[in-house]
Design a protein that fits this description.
The complex is a heterodimer of chains A (342) and B (671). Chain A is α+β, with helices and mostly antiparallel strands. Chain A has helices at residues 3-23, 27-38, 44-51, 60-85, 113-127, 141-144, 185-194, 235-251, 293-298, 315-323, 330-333, 336-339, and strands spanning 131-133, 138-139, 163-164, 179-180, 199-208, 220-230, 258-265, 268-278, 281-291, 307-314. In chain A, 40% of the residues lie in helices and 20% in strands. Chain A has a seven-stranded mixed sheet, with helices on both faces. Chain B is of the alpha+beta class. Classes of the chains: A alpha+beta (342), B alpha+beta (671).
Chain lengths: 342, 671
């Protein structure tokens, strides 16, 4: 027998034995494996040992040496398996062991705090029956303004308050310039245009407004907006859903209440600001209201048939308050020391 | 809008404390911004929403208070003396752009004595933080703050031709404002002019040439209405925001203009003397009649979720100034007051009733219907992606969606089209909507290098914007990774990602030559015949573009491809009860042979017994195995579903594989 073949069969055997010992999940199985490989009479190793005799004489020392190595390895693997099955670990007084040494480092990444905030909000609203949807960030005039009851003369359309695309890129509608959406309400329009009531969604994502970046402003931020359209939806439903949301998000064991203050948004009427009680005072949560009949009509709904509410919350503000982040720019600087805190 | 408590008392009794007052106002539409004691007065800063210009004067705020506390609103009585001279004999008004100036009124007072204002007047202006100038200017400011109508007083003697022309500015026309700065006017700006020149920017600011000074004795008093959009544009273009422009932008009470003019004259006559010419020059477009609005009482519970008794609805609306034209069991019809241009529809009246009745009356425990919500496949896949990356030790970054134009050309695997450009940069010089996430991640990497952060492992999930003609751009959700590790490590992460989302499908890789990637170390990834993405080690040139010191591997994955092929629900397969048998192979091949081909041949020749194949390492040694040769070491795990494999069976599979590798790729077992 050629030495190479002998060695190859030895290696293969060692691998098989190691696998068998390592995967044995009971003492009986391990004993069976021991007999199979290490059995004194007809174990595989014994069989291989017989082959040693047919190796060329000059190769015998090398073959014998390797045989003994493999035998040792197999026996060691058996012992290790025995200890594993007995629930024992290596015990040796002669081997010093410092339990206070650090464990092997496992590097785990971190989700961005904005992602975590959005995920929590989506989870809560999902439990309240709202399905999360997304829409394009580059929008046309109709979805960002017109359908949202923001007429041409409205200050919200001012070029200084929006990121319009340069005139070369015209939208398909009326050649009015496209823009980076200034609110996620655009997605509500898109969903309502395609879906008959009832509609129960949250839309969320990036929005853009030309603010100079400082500690509390950034030209890009995230919004989450809820929309519920059905027969018989009232402001009491709006208040109740928001209270449940706030209770889930912030409440813990404390009883959370929300209050409405009158406000003004083109796409809702009545419009309100929403506060929740927080540390003895009131904390601003966002804007809300009943969907304006003009908006319902714009998407082909009959305001005499259905009513609905909408609300919008700024993700950054809630995220920053919850995590004690004092400068919004830190969210977008991506210093890994910052990111690894969350 | 800052209001003075003492001033408010002129129009309504204030039996409540300032706290009680501001709490209630906050909950009914006038949000408290802050209060400040000024002498014996309290300045109350209220936020007035843009739909409520009627509250940009003390009378408007007092009216809200009167409605809320059921008090009487007291407006000053106006009584002007008669005179022999007539305004129409003294001056004329020519409105040449009625679309920008729907109404212009002028009155003339002659022989006034300019001097300081009395303390009661100057104190009130000081409470509001308004500079005190002289009696005439102070009075026009006072009346504006009283009723919300901006006014302007001209030194009549300095008006060339003793006339007023309201017109659009001419090309290159210049104007010196009362701040004594000269402005070159944008063409088409609405100006108040005399015979020769512009003397005021309509609704925005008066001019220095005709301003009222100590030597002034004759006055022309302007009370007008200017188009909101035009005033806003003028103020913005010339960067001249004023309390006047603020009010015109939001709209003034078209029927309150003459009252304001007469109120101004009344105070001037009382405090600065002079003689008021009889009559007024009033150039006005016809005022549209206000509509009658019907409010069905059933709308209140339908929208608000609560009932409001009809008599209470009636009280709220009439106290707010609406004129009731009809009421029955079912509905009330009203004509809204001239100062409430925001009330045109039934739903507007619902809001008025709601806010005065009180939003606190609306319950917060309604039994909202329960419905099932669904998580979209997209959402699930994105969450899976995040899970894998976090487990792989990568931190999630968020970067802004626009990049500087110089970064567009650096790497553009997804589109050749010119990027979409924003007319004003989103941040600093970033005005191009990005078509790849790589530059943003490399910029974030540089920031971290600057901060001496040693381990920089970043990923981002965000859209890129690929232009399409005639429709909205293709917004594609990508995953970008920038790692400090090499190609194989990042490829392993991407493989784990694919395995987690699309089990059973195998990702392919082909060499992708690109300046951005180090030579031979860029790849294009495919999945199911589609382009999955790109992966490679960034070249020195690429690193230089971003000022990076250390190398990085970039991966960019089209998540839509993963979503489309995702297998969200897994199916269990029967597991073999028989043990696996392992075989290690060490095969010498030509350098040009690719692993993908080796693996393909191994799989094709394993008689369905191959459970897994694991690449171990590549060994090169020109002396031992020859130049342009490499030795690939890999392990096979073989297992049958029917029986325990014997060594002979395993050897047979190995031999078949070796033979096939030899035949197809010229491979040889290494001895």
């Amino acid at each position: 027998m050629a030495l190479a073949d002998f060695l190859a069969s030895l290696d293969a055997l060692a691998q098989q034995a190691r696998d068998a010992f390592a995967t044995a999940n009971s003492a009986d199985a391990l004993e069976a494996a021991r007999i199979e490989f290490l059995g004194a009479k007809s174990g595989h190793l014994r069989q291989v040992q017989k082959g040693l005799g047919s190796v060329e004489k000059s190769d015998k020392p090398a073959a014998g040496k390797r045989f003994n190595e493999i035998k040792g390895l197999m026996e060691q693997a058996f012992e290790t398996a025995q200890e594993r099955l007995a629930g024992r670990v290596r015990e040796s007084a002669s081997e010093p062991f410092d339990v206070t040494l650090p464990g092997q480092t496992v590097r785990v990444g971190h989700l961005h705090p904005i992602t975590q905030t959005i995920r929590e909000m989506k989870d809560i609203m999902g439990r309240l029956g709202f399905t999360a949807v997304e829409g394009p960030e580059i929008e046309d005039d109709w979805h960002n303004f017109e359908a949202l009851n923001i007429p041409l003369s409205h200050p919200a359309r001012d070029p200084l308050d929006n990121f319009y695309l340069a005139t070369a890129e015209k939208g398909c509608q009326d050649e009015k310039p496209l823009l980076l959406r200034s609110q996620t309400s655009t997605v509500q329009i898109r969903v309502m245009e395609k879906t008959a009531p009832p509609v129960r969604i949250i839309s969320l994502g990036r929005v853009y407004r030309p603010d100079t970046a400082d500690a509390t402003h950034y030209p890009m931020f995230h919004q989450i907006e809820g929309l519920l359209i059905d027969r018989g939806v009232t402001m009491a439903d709006l208040k109740s859903v928001l209270r449940l949301f706030c209770q889930s998000y912030f409440g813990g064991d404390d009883q959370v209440h929300v209050r409405f203050r009158p406000s003004f948004f083109p796409f809702t009427e009545p419009s309100v600001e929403v506060d929740m009680n927080w540390q003895g005072g009131w904390m601003e949560m966002g804007g809300a209201g009943m969907v304006d009949p003009n908006v319902l009509r714009a998407v082909g709904y009959d305001p005499e048939e259905v009513t609905g509410f909408a609300f919008g919350l700024g993700v950054e503000r809630i995220c920053m308050r919850q995590h004690g982040i004092t400068d919004i720019r830190a969210l977008y600087q991506n210093d890994v020391r910052f990111l690894s805190q969350f | 809008m800052i209001v003075s408590r003492n001033w408010l008392k002129e129009y309504v009794d204030l039996p409540m404390t300032v706290d009680e007052l501001t709490d209630r106002l906050t909950l009914t539409g006038l949000n408290l911004e802050g209060t400040e004691e000024v002498g014996n007065d309290v300045a109350i800063d209220l936020e007035v929403t843009s739909n409520r210009p009627d509250c940009l004067g003390h009378i408007g705020v007092a009216r809200e208070i009167a409605v809320l506390w059921n008090q009487e609103l007291k407006r000053p009585a106006l009584d002007l003396p008669t005179s022999d001279s007539h305004a129409t004999d003294l001056t004329s008004v020519d409105v040449r752009c009625p679309e920008l100036c729907p109404r212009y009124t002028a009155r003339v007072i002659r022989g006034v004595k300019i001097g300081p204002s009395p303390a009661w007047l100057s104190d009130r202006l000081k409470s509001l933080g308004i500079a005190v100038i002289n009696n005439v200017v102070d009075i026009s400011n006072y009346v504006m703050m009283e009723c919300g109508q901006p006014l302007h007083t001209f030194d009549f003697a300095k008006l060339a031709g003793k006339k007023i022309v309201v017109r659009k500015s001419q090309p290159g026309e210049k104007f010196t404002a009362i701040n004594h700065q000269e402005y070159e006017l944008a063409e088409g700006t609405c100006v108040i002019a005399d015979d020769q020149r512009a003397v005021a920017l309509a609704g925005v600011m008066g001019g220095a040439d005709t301003e009222v000074s100590e030597s002034t004795s004759d006055l022309l008093i302007e009370a007008a209405d200017f188009a909101p959009l035009a005033v806003r544009n003028t103020a913005r273009r010339h960067n001249l925001q004023s309390p006047s422009s603020y009010r015109f932008e939001r709209g003034v009470d078209p029927e309150g203009i003459d009252w304001a003019s007469r109120r101004c004259c009344q105070l001037i006559l009382a405090l600065a003397g002079g003689e008021l010419a009889e009559g007024v020059i009033d150039i006005a477009e016809p005022i549209e009649p206000r509509p009658t609005i019907k409010l069905r009482f059933t709308e209140l519970p339908r929208v608000l979720g609560i009932e409001v008794p009809p008599d209470q609805v009636q009280t709220i609306l009439t106290e707010l100034g609406c004129e009731e034209t009809h009421i029955c069991d079912h509905c009330i019809k009203v004509i809204p007051p001239s100062w409430r241009a925001d009330l045109t529809r039934e739903i507007d009246l619902v809001e008025e009733v709601a806010r005065i009745h009180g939003y606190d009356q609306i319950p917060e425990d309604a039994g909202v219907k329960m419905v099932a919500s669904t998580r979209t496949l997209r959402d699930r896949v994105h969450d899976q992606v995040r899970g894998v990356l976090v487990a792989a030790g990568v931190d999630e970054a968020m970067t802004i969606s626009a990049v500087e134009s110089k970064w567009v050309e650096v790497f553009r695997p997804w589109s050749e089209a010119a990027p979409l450009v924003v007319s004003t940069p989103v941040l600093r010089r970033a005005d191009c909507l990005r078509q790849t996430l790589a530059p943003s991640l490399l910029a974030a990497r540089r920031i971290n290098e600057t901060l001496s952060n040693s381990t920089i492992e970043l990923f981002e999930i965000a859209d890129v914007y690929l232009p399409r003609t005639g429709q909205l751009p293709d917004e594609r959700r990508l995953l970008g990774i920038s790692s400090g590790a090499g190609f194989a490590v990042v490829k392993g992460v991407v493989e784990a990602l694919v395995a987690a989302i699309v089990p059973g499908d195998k990702m392919s890789a082909t060499t992708y030559d690109e300046k951005f990637f180090a030579s031979g170390r860029g790849s294009q990834l495919g999945l199911g015949g589609r382009t999955l993405g790109f992966l490679g080690e960034v070249s020195h040139w690429g690193l230089e573009q971003f000022g990076l010191r250390s190398g990085t591997t970039i991966a960019e994955i089209d998540l839509e491809v993963l979503v489309d092929s995702a297998v969200p629900i897994r199916t269990a397969k029967p597991l073999s009860p028989y043990p696996p048998v392992g075989r290690d192979l060490n095969v010498v091949l030509d350098e040009s042979v690719r692993w993908a081909d080796v693996e393909r041949i191994v799989r094709a020749n394993s008689r369905d017994l191959l459970e897994s194949i694991a690449y171990q390492e590549t060994y090169r040694d020109a002396e031992r195995i020859g130049a342009d040769k490499k030795s690939l070491l890999f392990s096979l795990s073989l297992r049958s579903a029917q029986e325990t494999l014997t060594n002979e069976q395993a050897d047979d599979v190995r031999d078949r594989i070796v033979a096939a590798l030899g035949k197809e790729l010229g491979g040889e077992l290494r001895a």
